[in-house]
């Protein structure tokens, strides 16, 4: 009597051929997820819930004016992260939150200071200018307008 291997049982060759794809899977999943941190003690306030900020028509982001105090910058997390700052009373500016060195989202520090957690580049949140490398290019400006008690960015 001869036995045969069931067709649903993979061969050693098939398992070895699949290993590269299996090894990449956790990396692909990790790159496709984001975590929301709520560490207001660091000055970094990523916001993506409906009470703090959200999507605006046309793909922009919304944030209450009250969450952007004078002399500070706030990072709005989302599909397209932004930095919003109020350098002087009533003047709001916004920038793309991706570091110009390698694209990591910057974090708001004290006041108008922004820092890239990947390689330490520092930016001025009021102007987007590089204050310390390795980044060499300023953060890209983004449109921001006030709509009542909300800011619409992007």
Automatic annotation (TrEMBL):
An MF annotation (GO) of this entry: monooxygenase activity
Positions with biased composition (Low complexity): 40-54
Signal peptide span: 1-30
UniProt keyword terms in alphabetical order: 2Fe-2S, Dioxygenase, Disulfide bond, Iron, Iron-sulfur, Metal-binding, Oxidoreductase, Signal
Gene3D superfamilies reported in the protein's UniProt record: Rieske [2Fe-2S] iron-sulphur domain
Rieske domain ranges (all copies): 60-153
Coiled-coil positions: none
Protein name according to UniProt: Ferredoxin subunit of nitrite reductase or a ring-hydroxylating dioxygenase
Organism: Tsukamurella tyrosinosolvens
